Structures are given as C-alpha cells and as structure tokens.
Amino acid sequence: MKKFINNPQQFVPEMLEGLALANPDTLKYVPEYNLIMRADGPDQNKVSIVQGSGSGHEPAHVMIVGKGMLDAACPGDVFAAPPFDYVYNTTKLLASPKGVLLLVNNYTGDKMVFDMAQEMSSAEGIDVRTLFINDDVSVEDSTYTIGRRGVAGNFFVIKAVAAAAERGADLDEVIRIGEKVNSVTRTMGVALTACTPPAKGSPLFELGEDEIELGVGIHGEPGRRRAKMMTANEIVEELLTPIVSDLPFTAGDRVALMVNGLGGTPISELYILYGQAHKRLAEQGISVGRSYVGEYCTSLDMAGASITLVRLDEEIESLLLDPAEVPIRVF
Amino acid sequence: MKKFINNPQQFVPEMLEGLALANPDTLKYVPEYNLIMRADGPDQNKVSIVQGSGSGHEPAHVMIVGKGMLDAACPGDVFAAPPFDYVYNTTKLLASPKGVLLLVNNYTGDKMVFDMAQEMSSAEGIDVRTLFINDDVSVEDSTYTIGRRGVAGNFFVIKAVAAAAERGADLDEVIRIGEKVNSVTRTMGVALTACTPPAKGSPLFELGEDEIELGVGIHGEPGRRRAKMMTANEIVEELLTPIVSDLPFTAGDRVALMVNGLGGTPISELYILYGQAHKRLAEQGISVGRSYVGEYCTSLDMAGASITLVRLDEEIESLLLDPAEVPIRVF
Amino acid sequence: MTTADLADVEYVVHTLAQTAVDNEKEFGDLDAVVGDGDLGYSLARGFEKVLSDWDSYKRDDVATFLQQIALAISSRIGGTSGPLWGTAFLRASATAKNFAMVDGPAVVAILRAAAEGIQARGNASLGDKTLLDALVPATEELERQIVAGASADECRAAFARTARACADATSTLEAKRGRASYSGTRSIGSPDAGAVAIAIIIERIIAEWDSH
Amino acid sequence: MTTADLADVEYVVHTLAQTAVDNEKEFGDLDAVVGDGDLGYSLARGFEKVLSDWDSYKRDDVATFLQQIALAISSRIGGTSGPLWGTAFLRASATAKNFAMVDGPAVVAILRAAAEGIQARGNASLGDKTLLDALVPATEELERQIVAGASADECRAAFARTARACADATSTLEAKRGRASYSGTRSIGSPDAGAVAIAIIIERIIAEWDSH
Ligand SMILES: Nc1ncnc2c1ncn2[C@@H]1O[C@H](COP(=O)(O)OP(=O)(O)O)[C@@H](O)[C@H]1O
Ligand SMILES: Nc1ncnc2c1ncn2[C@@H]1O[C@H](COP(=O)(O)OP(=O)(O)O)[C@@H](O)[C@H]1O
Ligand SMILES: [Mg+2]
Ligand SMILES: [Mg+2]
Ligand SMILES: [Mg+2]
Ligand SMILES: [Mg+2]
Question: Which of D198, D110, D114 lies closest to D162 in space, CA to CA?
Fold first, then answer.
C-alpha cells in the first residue's frame, strides 16, 4: 500500500484536522466525535441537517458541510458507521428549536446506530428524525434483507433538504422533500479495481486485469457480478439499463444525470461516460436538465464510477439550483 | 489497462464532447481543433484568455473554461502539445479587439508550437501574446535547458489574469499580472504510482511497492529522484523545503497553499498533506491566506500530489477572490 | 454470587478482548472476502480501549461490570459490530442481575440473552449467515451438555467444538444480513466473518481456561 | 530534374511514413523510458494522415511535394515532434528548390537543411541527446562517402550504419532538451527515442531501396 498517511489509525482524524485548517472561517472540528460542523452552527432558525456515515467516501460528507448544505457531518472510521456515542453527542450539539434531521445511507450498521441515537436523543427532548437513503438499484429490495443501499444519489437528497431547510421549511416539510427526492433517485456503480483501506493495507478483493465488478456499493465490498472488461459505451449500457427500467424513467422525463467517480478514476474518463449516457438518454426521449460530473461519493482509491438519475420536477430542480458554499469549491 | 474508454484515439474528442453535452449553455466544442470555448465567446470587450497544453491533466484546462476563467482551452492529445494548426485557428477564433493572451506551461514542444502560432497570428494582425508559466522547483533552471516546467501553479496565473481581463484590464496589464503571479508561485510534486496513457495501455514507468518518485512533472515522465516510501509528514517535508527555500518564502509572508492531486489519489489523503503543510508553514511564520485542496492539474490516473505556494499581496489575493463559473462546479 | 464468579467473568471478557486485539488482521481478512474488511479494525479499536481502561471499571457485581463493558463498546466500536456487541453485553448484564451465582444455567441464560439482544437489534434469523449461526447453536449445545450432567471440562469443550463447527458451516449459507448480503449468492463458499470470530474467541477462552 | 528524382523522394517519404505507423508501439516505448511515451502516437497519427492523403499531394516538383508534407505534418502532429518534423520538411523543401536534380550533393544539402531547421526550431546542440545526434553525423558520413567516390550502395549503407551507431551511442549522453531532460542524469543509460526512431527509419529506407 502506498498512500499519503502517517498512521492508519490517525487517517480520519488527520484528514478532518486538515479540512478544518483549510476552512478556518467556516468549519469547526470536534475531535471527540469525529465531527465537522459549521463554525457558526447550529442555526437556531432552521432545521439542522446532519449526515452520518463511514469515512472513505470523501468528499462525502465532511467536505460538503457549509451554508446551503450540511450543518454537520459525523463520520465513523473507514467504511464503518460512527459509534453510537458520536452520533448521540452530535445530535445534542446540533439541536435546534426547529429540529434535527439525520440523513443516513441505508446499511445495517448505520441503521442500527442512528436508530439508537435517535431514540436516545428523542428521549432527551430533542426533535430529531432520521431519513434513510436507498438509491442503489443493484441490490434487490426484499423483505429478507435490509433493502437497498444508499450510494451517490444521497447528494441530491442532501442538496434538496438542505436548500429547503435554508429557506425555512419545518422538519416535516424537510422530510417530505427528502423522501420525495429519494423516491425518484436511482444509482448503479461499477468498479475497475478494488480499493485499499489504510488499516488493511491491501486491496479488499482481487480483480483480474480484464475483469470488472458490476453493481458495487461504496464500501469496497464486491458487487453483484463479475464481468469481462468492456468499452466505456458498453459499461454505460450496463449501468443505465437497470436504472432506467427500475423507476422507470420514461420518454418526456427531465432528469439530473450524475457521473460519480469512485476515487481512482480521472475526470476525463467520467466525461466519456457522461457523453454516452447523455446521448443514450436522449435517444429514449429523456432530457438532461442538470449534469453532475466528478467525485461526489467515493470508495477511497477505487477506480470506477456510478451513474445516478433523478427525475426532476419544478420543486426539486429549484432546490438543486439554490447556492451552497462548501469546502470542495474550486476557487 | 482498465479504463472507461472506447478507443484510445477517441479519448480526447469523446471527453470534450461529453464536457460540451454537460454544459450546453456555457460551452462550445469545436472538434476540428479540439477546442473548448465559451458558448458566447469571444467577448469583444475583454482580452481573451486561452490556455493550451496536452490533455491528460483534467480538470486542467478544458474544464475551467467559463466566466471569470478561460475563454478557451486548446488541448492536444494526451501529454502532447496541440498541433500548430489548432493553436493558430483557436487564436483566430478567439481574436478580440483587446487582444489574446495564450497561457502555456513551459515545455519544449508547447513553447515551439505556441511561438509558431503567435508569429503566424501576429502576421495576420491579431494582437496576441504568449506567457510561459514555470513554477516547478524540481527542475533546475540553467541556460543549457529550456528551463523550469509549468505545473499546477498555472491555476493561480490563470485565475489572476482571467479576473483582471474580466475587470477590463488591457493586454499589457494582464501580462504584467500574469508575470507577477508566476514569479511568486512555486510547486513541487511526488508520484506514488506511474500513470497509464490510453494509447500506450501500460504504465509509463515501474515503481516498486515501496518506492516513490520525487520531483515529477505532470506528463507521467519519471521525476528527479526515486526514494523509499515515507510517511505523509515526511513527504510534506520533501516537497515543502525546496519550495520555501526557492523563492524564498519567509516569516511574515501570507500565502495561498494548494495541495493538488495527480489523479489517482483520493481527496482524503490530500487533506492529510494539507494539514501538515499548513502547520509546518505556521511554524515558520508563514500564514495561509487561501487554501486549495483537490484535483487541479493531474497526470491521468497517477497516484500522487503536488504542493504549490503563492506569495500573496493585496492585488493577487483580490484577483483570486473574484467569482468564476466553470464546469468543475459542485452544484 | 462469589468473587470467583466475577473472576471468571473478568477472565472471559479479558480473553475475548485480547483475542479481538490479537486477531485484528485475521478478522479483517475474513470480512474482506465478501464484506468490507473492517471487522478486525472495529473490534480491535473497541476492545483495546476495554483493555486499556480495564482497571477503571466498577466491579460491584457481574451485572455492573458487564454493563460498563457494554457502554465502552458501543461508544467506541463503529460499524455494525458496535450496536450488536454493545447490545449483547447490555442484555447479558441485565440477565446477570437475575442470578445470585454464575453457574452453568446462569451462563446459558446470559449467553441466550446476549444472542437475543443481537437478534432484536439486527433483525437476523438463524441461517442468515451471521455470528448468531455460531453463538446460538453453541449455547444450545452447552445447555444440552449441562442438562446431561457432563463435567465442566466436557461442557466447555463441547461449547467450543460446536461454535467452530457451526461457524465453518456458514460457508454453505447465503448472506441475508450485513454488507456481505449485497454480494448475493457470491457469499456462498466462504464462512461468515463474525461467526468465525466468535469461534476463535470461544476456542481461546476454553483453551486457556485452566491457566487463569 | 527528372521524374526518377520525384519517385525517389516519394519512396523515401512513403517509407518514412509507413515506418512511423508500423513502429507506433516501439517508438512509444522508447519515449517512455525517461520521456512521456507519446512519440509513437504523435508520429503515427501524423504520418497515417500523410499516407491516407497520399494521392492528394501536388507533385509539380520535389519542393512542392515536400512542402505539402510539411504542412500536413505540422497541422496534425502535436507535441515536440510536430514543430520539429514540420520545420525539417519545410527547410528540406526550400533547399530542394535550389537543385535542378536530386543527386548525392543535393541529398546532403537537403538533409543538412532539415537538420538545421530542427536545430533552429528546438535550439538543441549536438550532444544534447536528441534526434540530431543521429541525423547530423549520418549526413556528414554520407557526404564523406560521396566525396570519396563511393558507390551509391556503399553511400547508403554507410549512411544507415552511422545513423544506427550514433543513435545507440546517445545512451551515454545526458538529455539536455525535451521532456527527457527533466530526469537529469537518470536519462543516461538509455538511448534517445527520437534518435533511435531516425535510425530505424533510415535503416528501413535503405533496406528496401532496391525493391522500389
Ligand atoms: N443484521 C445482523 N445481525 C446479526 N449479525 C450481523 C448482522 N449484520 C452483520 N452481522 C455480523 O457482523 C459481521 C460484520 O461486522 P462489521 O464488519 O463490523 O459490519 P459492517 O458490515 O458494518 O462492516 C458479519 O460477519 C456478521 O456476522
Ligand atoms: N529541443 C529539441 N531539439 C531537437 N530534438 C528534440 C528537442 N526536444 C526533443 N527532441 C526530440 O524529440 C523526441 C521526443 O519527441 P516527442 O515525444 O514528440 O516530444 P515530447 O517531449 O513533447 O513528448 C526526443 O526523443 C528528441 O529526439
Ligand atoms: Mg464496515
Ligand atoms: Mg509529449
Ligand atoms: Mg465489515
Ligand atoms: Mg514524448
């Protein structure tokens, strides 16, 4: 493993410290709970929006704390939900009279931790609710499992609820919007390589020089199916077809199209995927209203990408358009 | 090689087509010259700012065309200066009564191509000038060589001259500013892995599992020196020391600090480098006025990073603060 | 309850914690096969804290001691393991309160309460390929041996043997819970990481029993 | 000048172009050792265009033909090679104008003009480890053989032999120009990619001379 790290156990704290040093006017780092929050938070006049998840998905979510987006992000260690304590204390710190919304990607561990923290915080009189995001079409949603996972599509839920909260919506309204965006968001991912967690020091799985993994999540775990390497256009087909047929998206739909890099893939390649996806959608009568190309929700250094579609309506599009000021600015 | 590509020879055109499809309101793609320009350009009331270089450095520079930044970017193939013809025709297309400034990283091929294009365009009455950027401290500047290379520090030159042009500065003034920013900008890079150009299909060089290359440029060529893998903090020392002593930066200086990823390194690791660099500078009495962490000027999928320092004064800082709207926006 | 009981419980918890720390890499590798490879890291970070704070825990009785361990775990361990193992210790503590002394039937009751806590928290059934598939049958086998009047040594040996056999047998199951479940039928062919971890921990506790 | 002259020049250019296309991978690998690996790609993309447009070039005389090649090259080849090779052909064309027929001395003059064009454009001196270190001594050797009255076959063989020997000898030099120069002394030990490309091209032109 070759990485810019000092000590695998300090990977997350050192990253968060660097993030706070780079954004001294806007962010505060609370080391006791791995917490990144707005320097001036919580805003007593709005619902606090908090995202919790494992680390290793940067810029998600610690780097999108800021005006118009998250009030705080509470990450665990790499690919591990934060300890219950961290979430509980984060909720207390972010408590606002208008309430707290915890956004969580739907995974076993995360669900358990956040359910426990919500119970405990509610018991102390904090108005807190939890919204689980589950946009991944590669996982079958059956009563036997915990259901679909949340992956890169969570960005759209976050952006929309954050904009609504910023506009003054109450907790019920914010949740209505979050559930609505989640319900029209679909994602599927592919890995070209495995990723290497710092604490493990070696790739999570082995992929041959001509193999790819279809239907991967964002935790470096293997996907649904291994396939032979194919062209960019063929990969777009593999990802887009299950996404489109799932909602389903149909002719006349206006969508947001996100091509998300998983960490090790350069943005040049993402635009090759984007171009093909855009054209294939157009052929089906689906028009792209807003485009997102880059790294949003990654798996450390994994080479790979995911495609997300969101069916837009006036309300969602307007919320996506609202301004936001976050550390992953360019200038 | 596993990449999202269809055909290595279509790598650049397909990327540019995707970029234009994703930004239909703001960008125009001219396939004949690999050109990305503002949809409404050229603006007759300002100096046109054009960056030319090889491809493979994305988001540099095609993804920073937009209001407040470049009027056009004219890339060649991967790691190759554009053909002379492309530059010449780009210059003609971007001609404005206030003149055209060609920004070029200082490399043999690029210098020759842009010198030729400038000669030819000038002969046709276009007011065109070329500014060569050379911020890389790892290359010795001697009369025997073409001199230092231009690397990620070019972002600061671009941002400053673009802001000045947007404010209405004339060509002489824009060049004065560009030369000034270039003169106070210093960069050094390190590679943890080699990169794989699509047309080559295999890594440009081999690095052992415990080896790194210090002093790499941005074209995947080997660096000045091979070293054993070290900690993030030790790497910061290797990069920062030659940068600081070169200008030199001294106690009391206020700087912009950029940690630039080379393509395959996740942003989490970049923040670990950032935190240490920030603290080491503070120890030397050098304060960070503005911070930049992410991918700016990459080498395809190379894992690695560069650190750039710019000595700020009021004029430079104010230009860096001006707004810009480019495709590598987040929302 | 007697001091000997608390000493036994302390020995079990200490050995468990030490095993988790010593096996960080192995547990991680087991979880990497179809999971995300962090099981070893999560357990090691939590249980090394348990070891380093060892002397600070109140030892009024077994229940108090176990509750303190529960709190330490759930405030330190992330991922799925934090809530599951934390809940297990919490339920174990609550059940320990009902027993004046920790004899065989008490041990069975405590283990069963822990397993039920995990079940309630994680909503998994037997056969879903989780640590329950080692813990539950091993506990049942322990009870069977006790009822049959086996010696303490025989009981412990049977407990460990069953945990190991059932952990290994999870290889044939398809994961229905946790991250491994996303791999669908591809999880078949390798054992569940949590179940094998349980077996390794129990084996060590039993192997070193006589030396404590 | 005679039609035979134009045919010879056409043969040389065509073989050069074909060699560049056929050796894309090899030239790229040579450039990857201390450069950025794109020499093969750049030359192949430019010269495959030369081949595909082959019939469209005006053939009024050798100078016109060479000038058209020059334009095709510099409008198609990127990197350092575009300006260098384009300038070489432009200067070759200008010099060809001075000769009524392309005999031995004319060939020497044309090659020398090409090399001087490269030198002017790239500002490299002999010994800087560039293609000039193969092209210039090979041209000098050709002139020496012509002056010494060697046969045409002998002249050509000496030309190719020298180009190869000098290209190989660039291994001992430190690169002072181009991207390879950034590697400093590490460029010592492998030959210059451009110089070896020149040798390979000349060898092929000479080897297939009799069959055209
Ligand atoms: N819902 C569940 N109920 C019981 N045990 C579970 C459940 N989900 C996972 N496990 C157990 O937890 C182990 C994985 O733990 P860990 O690696 O910490 O979780 P994560 O999936 O969050 O990375 C699995 O091997 C399995 O034994
Ligand atoms: N300044 C120069 N003068 C003459 N030849 C040069 C010069 N710089 C480079 N070369 C030649 O060009 C070759 C590399 O060409 P190419 O790969 O196209 O350039 P780049 O460095 O732009 O990738 C070198 O091997 C060398 O022979
Ligand atoms: Mg995990
Ligand atoms: Mg090149
Ligand atoms: Mg795990
Ligand atoms: Mg090259």
Answer: D198
- Full domain range(s) for residue C98: 3-211
Evaluate whether C80 touches A109 at the Cβ level (below 8 Å): yes
Angle CA(B87)–CA(B91)–CA(B92) in degrees, nearest 5? 120
Helices (H), ranges, chain D: 3-22, 24-32, 39-52, 62-76, 81-96, 104-122, 132-147, 152-169, 193-207
DSSP B230-290: --HHHHHHHHHHHHHHHTT--TT-EEEEEEEE-BSS-HHHHHHHHHHHHHHHHHTT-EEEE
Q: What is the gyration radius of the CA atoms in chain C, in angstroms?
A: 16
- Partner C contacted by A42 (CB < 8 A): no
Tokens 């052992």 belong to: B208
The Cα B190–Cα B229 span in angstroms is 11
CATH number of the domain enclosing C57: 1.25.40.340
User: Whole-angstrom Cα distance, residue A241 to residue B53?
Assistant: 37
| Best of B85, B149, B195, B202 to mutate (most D CBs within 10 Å, chain D) | B85
Residues A27/A35, Cβ–Cβ less than 8 Å: no
In chain B, what residues touch D76 (CB-CB under 8 Å)?
A: 83, 85
For C66, half-sphere exposure in the C-beta direction (CA atoms, 13 angstrom radius) is 26
- d(CA C98, ligand 1 centre) in Å: 29
Contact B257, B274 (CB under 8 A): yes
Q: Whose CA is nearest to atom 2 of ligand 1?
A: C122
Kindly give the pairing relationship between strand B211-214 and strand B254-261: unpaired
**Spatial distance between the Cα atoms of B189 and B214, rounded to a whole number of angstroms:** 6
The pTM (predicted TM-score) of the whole model is: 0.93
Backbone angles phi, psi at A82, to 5 degrees: -65, 155
- Non-local (6+) Cβ contacts of B158 within 8 A are B49, B51, B61, B64, B69, B70, B103
Residue B240 corresponds to which tokens in the numbers above? Answer: 């920062």
Q: Which helix (H) or strand (E) holds A261?
A: strand A254-261
Residue B284 has pLDDT above 80, yes or no: yes
| Most ligand 1 atoms within 8 A of CB, residue of A53, A108, A114, A145 to mutate | A108
Residue B229 burial by CB count (10 A; 0-12/13-18/19+): exposed, middle or buried? middle
Quote the ligand 3 centre to B235 CA distance (angstroms).
30
Q: How far is B133 from chain A (nearest CA, A)?
A: 19
Structure tokens that stand for B215 in this block: 């002093």
Say if the Cβ atoms of C78 and A107 lie within 8 Å: no
CA angle B274, A33, C180 (to 5 degrees): 90
Answer yes or no: do A22 and B305 touch at CB < 8 A. Answer: no
Nearest CA among A108, B146, B169 for reference residue D125:
B146
Residues of B recognised as catalytic: 57, 219
Count of domains observed in chain C: 1
Q: What is the pLDDT confidence band of residue C1, given thresholds at 50, 70 and 90?
A: very low
Kindly provide the ipTM of the predicted complex, given to two decimals: 0.92
How many Å lie between the centroid of ligand 1 and the Cα of residue B299? 39
| Contact predicate B220/B194, CB 8 Å | yes
| Active site residues per annotation of A | 57, 219
User: What are the backbone angles phi and psi of residue D127, rounded to the nearest 5°?
Assistant: 95, -5
Question: DSSP character for B223?
Answer: -
Mean pLDDT, each 10-residue run in order, chain D (212 residues): 76 98 96 90 95 95 95 89 94 94 94 97 94 98 97 96 98 91 87 98 96 86
Q: Between chains, do A116 and C83 touch, taking CB under 8 Å as contact?
A: yes
CA gap C196, C190 in Å, rounded:
10
Give the model confidence (pLDDT) of C114-127 as tens digits.
999 999 999 999 99
**Ligand 2 cavity residues, CB under 6 Å:** B 80, 108-109; D 31, 35-36, 38-39, 42, 79-81, 84, 118, 122-124, 130-132, 177-179, 192-195
